[in-house]
Design goal:
There is one protein chain. This protein is α+β, with helices and mostly antiparallel strands and 375 residues long. The chain contains five helices and ten strands; from the N terminus they run αββββββββββαααα. Strand 3 and strand 4 form a beta hairpin. Helix 2 packs parallel to helix 5, helix 3 runs parallel beside helix 5 and helix 4 packs antiparallel against helix 5.
Length: 375
């Protein structure tokens, strides 16, 4: 569709646009009086009512031509109205051009703004122009006698069509937007479920490190017990000299404070921290899943006819229940490991206290605060 109608091809452009791809450009016109004269006898002219002319309309356009006839000569104006722009911002645009031509018997020719004439046939209450097309063919377009009121009604109908097109386009855009929002929600919920499953598997696996580390701490505690027995043997043998307190303080005491206690605080404590971090991730995942699923349900209400392949409430509940079970099991397992490590530490410090007392080696080291549970 052309952005404006050139003076020489105003009507041709409208017709061609209507025939090829869409509504033509519009032109608005002024009302003029018309007269009718027989070209052969040239009798006195009789003026028609002001506002009478010839009307044609097509998809997205309306044309109205009014003229005066003097002999065989025609002069007047043509108003063209058309849908312009793109929905939902389409509008009716109007343009007016001058018309001149010839009417001789049934033969009529019209030129718009003094440009190339269009030829056709006239039959009293209507005329048909043959409009050249881009492929070289002629497209006939018929104009019927009509009043200005009929032209106004045709323009009003065109405006209604434009308004309807805009409403439909706006509604389609709204539906497209709502579908995109729902699709985004569906993806978010699906991603949440996948992430939750992965993190739940990770939290379950994170508890596995405790077994190996507790075995190491148990072996370290056994070494502490063995070193304590050595001190007790030395304390009962007067020939051992000064080795008793050295072994009590720098061997058994070292075992308790720098080996077993280290195992509890820095190894088992680190393991517990890793589990707690994994548990926090799962809980955050559950919160995000619940929030995103609630948003999906809210947005889906706006467009109930749209049914994408979205996760169901049952699937969401199942994912949350499975992950919650993994969290509960991990927390229980981690806290059991912490309790075992605390027990090993308490036992190690008890061995140290016995060794200190056996050799009268002063005050033994104080048993540290137990490692705290994770929540």
């Amino acid at each position: 569709m052309r952005s404006r109608i050139g003076a020489s091809v105003a009507l041709a452009a409208i017709m061609l646009s209507a025939a090829c791809s869409g509504p033509p450009m519009t032109i608005a016109g002024a009302a003029t009086s018309t007269s009718s004269v027989d070209a052969e006898s040239n009798p006195p002219q009789t003026a028609e009512p002001v506002g009478t002319g010839y009307l044609a309309a097509g998809p997205g356009w309306v044309a109205f031509i009014e003229w005066h006839k003097q002999g065989t000569s025609l002069t007047g104006t043509a108003q063209f109205d058309q849908a312009a722009g793109t929905a939902p911002a389409e509008r009716v645009s109007a343009q007016t051009v001058d018309v001149d031509g010839q009417l001789s018997g049934p033969q009529i020719s019209l030129s718009f703004d003094s440009e190339t004439a269009q030829f056709g046939t006239f039959s009293g209450s209507s005329f048909t122009l043959n409009v050249p097309q881009s492929d070289g063919s002629l497209l006939p377009e018929t104009f019927h006698k009509a009043t200005a009121a009929e032209f106004n009604q045709a323009v009003s109908t065109l405006q209604e069509q434009v308004n309807k097109t805009n409403v439909q386009a706006s509604q389609a855009a709204t539906v497209q937007h709502d579908q995109a929002v729902i699709d985004r929600d569906v993806k978010a919920v699906g991603d949440d479920i996948n992430r939750l499953d992965q993190d739940a598997s990770a939290v379950a696996a994170s508890v596995g490190v405790f077994s190996k580390d507790l075995e190491t701490e148990k072996a370290d505690l056994a070494t502490t017990a063995k070193d304590e027995q050595k001190v007790l043997t030395e304390a009962s043998n007067s020939s051992s000299g000064d080795n008793t307190c050295y072994d009590a303080q720098d061997v058994v005491g070292y075992d308790a404070q720098d080996v077993v206690e280290y195992d509890t605080e820095d190894v088992i404590g680190y393991d517990a921290g890793q589990v707690e971090g994994a548990v926090t991730s799962v809980r955050n995942d559950i919160t995000a899943l619940r929030s995103d699923f609630a948003q999906l349900q809210k947005d889906a209400v706006v467009l109930p006819s749209y049914q994408p392949n979205a996760p169901t409430g049952a699937e969401v509940d199942q994912a949350i229940a499975s992950a919650s079970k993994a969290v509960s099991s991990a927390v229980t397992g981690a806290n059991a490991a912490i309790d075992q490590a605390n027990a090993y530490t308490a036992a190690a410090f008890q061995y140290a206290a016995v060794a200190y007392r056996a050799g009268n080696c002063g005050s033994p080291p104080s048993t540290p605060e137990p490692e705290k549970h994770i929540g």
